[in-house]
Amino acid sequence: MVRPAATMSSIEAALHRLDRAIATGLNRSRCLRRWSEFIRERDDHRCVDCHSTRNLSAHHICRKTFLPEAEYQTGNGVTLCRDCHRQVHQGFNGRPDLLEPMDAQGGEKLEYMERLYCILDQDAVERGLLRAGLYHLSDQVLAKFKLFQGFEPDTVFPGPPVRQAYLIWAQTSLRVRRALAEADGLPMTDQPILPGEVFIVFTDHTGQQVSLTLRNPRWY
Question: What is the pLDDT of residue 102?
Fold first, then answer.
């Protein structure tokens, strides 16, 4: 049987069922079921990565065992087929040790988090679905992402929440950037360097070091 294509009314109806399940205090299992139903409906019942329509699952991009507050957030979910889903869960998939640095056990798969937030944002743009509620990540979750990358919680990243998540994880962590710059005796900005941007340091005519970031207008 061919499933009808998702429509805005069917997506909004699935979101309403999820919101109602959370608001009325349904148990965790039923809330997760409504979350999964919404993610798959929003993504038109196909893998957002390879576009397969077989053996689909709703995947938490940032694991719910690592960040429980994002468990039901719609911007933390993406539909994946069995093969793509298996790939992101390869290696350690147990409960994280929160006393260890993020991804010290290899469970968070930071490169996959960056990729999945990126393709989810691109899919939303291409389908004209970037609207409130459909791809929600709370300010609290985004602030934690920034802290994990070494940025202050109020550091500004442009765009809607899922795009911000992608841009946060697309960064080299601020700690690593600072360490590399200090090793070369160079200054380093504490602001994001977005994809396609360049941070440069040069000596001006007075012999002073000057630093600036060449901005990419795409993000502003």
Answer: 55
